[in-house]
Amino acid sequence: MAKKNQRNYVCFDLGSCNTRIYISGKGVIYNEPTLLVKDIKKDKITHYGKNAREVIGKLTKSQQVCYPIVGGVISDFSLLNKYLKLAIDKFLPDIRDSIITVACPSMISELEKSYLVKAIKILEPHRINVVEDGKLAIYGAGFDITSNNAYLGLDIGGGTVTAMSVVGNSIISQTSTKKGGSSFDAEITKLIKKHYNTLIGELTAEQIKVSVVSLLKENKKISVFGYDINTGMPTNIEVDGNVFNKLVVSFYERYTSLISALLEKLPKEAIIDICKTGLILTGGFSKIKGVKEYMEEFFSLPVHISHKFASDAVINGAIKYENIYELDDQT
Fold it and tell me: Which CATH architecture describes the domain 9-33+71-136+314-330?
């Protein structure tokens, strides 16, 4: 049966680390890093998305890595416009006059939100709906945010980390921090320098995080290349994952404090629901080994985490959100 308005439904998850774009009938048409490389002398974008990420650390003196979104907030409006046009160039006809859902960081100001809408308006949609990313993440993880049950979610992204409680598609309470996965990567580079006298790039730091960092005490090691500070020569070092034990615990202690502060603000009946529905973990940094066990021990709550879909929970929630619009239209 054809839909009433016949307009395309489009979703944007503009994250600090990755951008995901969905178009009805085509699926997720874009899932790449939110970054560009600009040639300063020529004032020209030379790489974007995945290609830009692959050349990090290999640039000429006139090239510069640019991040249009930092900590969930637009850092450069002009760069974001250029990035979006490059990302969706082939699909502009599908996006014009569409209904768009944009995921936004939950705690940004109205001014910051207006800049996000302004960036999307250039694509000439019929309508733009801005929805909090934390709410979409819970929905995308498979929980019905329109029900009368209260849900508690922690979305641990690269730029921002959001703790949120939702009931009946409304936010009861929320809080956030900008100490996400990207901040952790930066701390890894500092520890490698301190323990191994070696400089590494951000791609190597992320490789270390994914491969050997854990909240469990494991004896995992990884061999990586870097720059020896003492000799000034390239070097290959074997990194012990236990070097990062205190660091990863300190980050997750911050997250447990975030959730604890939120729980203190919730009505008693909502907390009773959460004792049954548990804690829903999403976001790429939630896939660290031992997270489920750590959170269950700390809160004595059931913890739900899907390693397969954790990174895609927000865009999946935005896709499913079309059902909520249809219900609204019928009422």
Answer: 2-Layer Sandwich (3.30)
